[in-house]
Design a protein that fits this description.
Helix content is about 25%, strand content about 25%. It has helices at about 5-15, 55-65, 90-100, 120-125, and strands at about 25-35, 40, 70-80, 100-110, 115-120. The protein has a five-stranded mixed sheet. The termini are far apart. The structure holds tetrahydrodeoxyuridine (THU). Tetrahydrodeoxyuridine binds near residues 20, 90 and 94.
């Protein structure tokens, strides 16, 4: 069983490390791998704006570069630090990159806080996705 609350709390914590001087929108992610390990990430912006990386892909690239190939769940928390946040859903690029490694039962936790979050099945986040199975 996935501890949604713990993963949501880790994403909220990771958000505090965001480097986002341009948008000032802070995002944190906590990625639970099939082996039980958790990798966190934050968004990292660049003065050359398109070079920015989202929190989800920071966490994913950390995990994959450590040898992980199957991921079980991700929690995402995003907001302006000085405002009440909305639920922050992964962008299209992150959805596609995550798709490469998701388990069939992958879950997405969208957190405003450790106590206020929504849980989605992957199919709701990326229906009809194109992935490794299409090229098998
Ligand atoms: N961002 C993320 O890190 N993840 C999301 O799910 C949405 C957007 C970042 C990218 C950029 O640094 C800032 O939020 C505003 O788009």
């Amino acid at each position: 069983m996935i501890n949604h609350k713990l993963l949501a709390a880790a994403a909220v914590d990771a958000k505090s490390r965001a480097y986002a001087p341009y948008s000032r929108f802070h995002v944190g992610a906590a990625l639970l791998c099939a082996d039980g390990n958790v990798y966190i990430g934050c968004n990292i912006e660049s003065a050359a704006y398109p070079a920015t990386i989202c929190a989800e892909r920071t966490a994913l690239t950390k995990a994959i570069s450590e040898g992980v190939r199957k991921i079980r769940a991700i929690a995402v928390a995003g907001s302006f630090p000085d405002k009440e946040g909305n639920y922050c859903y992964p962008c299209g690029v992150c959805r596609q990159m995550l798709h490469e490694f998701v388990t069939d039962d992958f879950e997405v936790i969208i957190a405003k806080s450790a106590d206020d979050y929504r849980v989605h099945k992957w199919e709701e986040i990326l229906p009809y996705g194109f992935g490794p199975k299409d090229l098998a």
